[in-house]
Amino acid sequence: MKSLILKLGVVLFALSIIVSPITAAAKEEPTVSVSKVTAVAEDEIIINIDISNNPGIQAMSFTVSYDPAAVTYVKTTRGGLSDYMFANHSEDGYVSFVNCESTNISYNGTIFSITFTVNQDVAPGEYAFKIQNINPQKNGDSLKGCFANKEHTPINPIIKNGSVTIGETCANSGHKFSSWQETLKPSCEEKGAKTRSCTREYCGHTELEEIAAVGHDFADEWTIDKTATAESQGIMSRHCKSCSATKDETYFDLEISEENNFENVQDQIVPPESWDVLEEIIEEEKREEAAKEEEQKASSDNKSSDSDFFSTRNIIIICICATALALISAIIIFSIIKKGKKK
Ligand SMILES: [Zn+2]
Ligand SMILES: [Zn+2]
């Protein structure tokens, strides 16, 4: 038991030796951090530049870069220091900052804040705000000499850059639709309708689309619609499986049903053995109909040519006759006038 307590004590002691420098180091390291925010188009965002674990700094000079395609600079606001100089460079996308105090200042908190508006047409994604050298074009991310105390001992704070994550909106990413909902079921002949809506609460955009008519689904089998009698023909047809439409209406004589052994009863289905015979009847009817149509067309063509009073040939004849008549009338009038003058 004693040895177990001893062992535990040794382990705890060893752990404290390992852990304490880490926590102490993390506490002591000066850090400059930039806000990470989320936004959508046209939002106003405030980006804070904060300092922590400040060991005592007299002068700072650096820039905060931004993407002018994503955000537009509005203003810079001072934090807890006393001596500030700012300049915004919209075209190159950075704000430069210079501070020089009379002595070392151990201030922890917001050094300054920059207000931006998120551009309207910005694509969704993450856009960085980076702390860079006071001359970013020349020195980039190197911050050597950007933080100084009055003793001139080098200060290299940990830099935690920030960003704005711009979310998807209908304006920058299009609508986010729910699945289509059928609002009107299409039938064999009538179109249906479906709708879908944008799921973003603020949007309310809805789309409506037609659904094409499904068309009839006719059965192969034949159904007797009217029974044949000795006096009149019966009618049979193929019925749509979904609605009351029929096709291939065919007249049949009583003998047909007798010869082919199918029951001549209303709504009775004709057995498949007789379908070939019915197909033949239909073909025959179609041929007769086509011939009849041909005949009608021919006779109507003849009629139209006969009755076409205003054909080109007739117009020419009429014109010639009218001219001749006008000429004769002129001659007669002329001779009457002439006779009148002689008297
Ligand atoms: Zn939308
Ligand atoms: Zn139908």
What is the average per-residue confidence, as pLDDT, rounded to a whole number?
85
Which percent range fits the helix content? 25-40%
What is the CATH class designation of the largest domain? Mainly Beta
The number of distinct structural domains comes to 3
Broad structural category: alpha+beta
CATH fold field value of the largest domain: Immunoglobulin-like
Bound ligands, named by name, code or SMILES: zinc ion
Describe this protein's structure.
- This protein is of the alpha+beta class.
- The chain folds into three domains: 29-171, Immunoglobulin-like (Sandwich), CATH 2.60.40.680; 175-211, no CATH class; 222-298, no CATH class.
- The chain has helices at residues 2-28, 136-139, 170-173, 254-259, 275-307, 312-342; strands at 31-34, 36-39, 44-52, 57-65, 71-78, 85-89, 94-105, 109-118, 125-132, 147-148, 158-160, 162-166, 181-184, 192-197, 206-211, 222-226, 234-239, 246-252, 269-270.
- The strands form four sheets. Strands 2, 4, 6, 7, 9, 10 and 12 form a seven-stranded mixed beta sheet that branches. The protein has a five-stranded mixed beta sheet with strand order 5-8-3-1-11, with no helix packed on it. It has a four-stranded antiparallel beta sheet with strand order 18-17-16-19.
- Bound molecules: zinc ion (2 copies).
- Residues 188, 216, 240, 242-243, 245 line the site of one zinc ion (ZN).
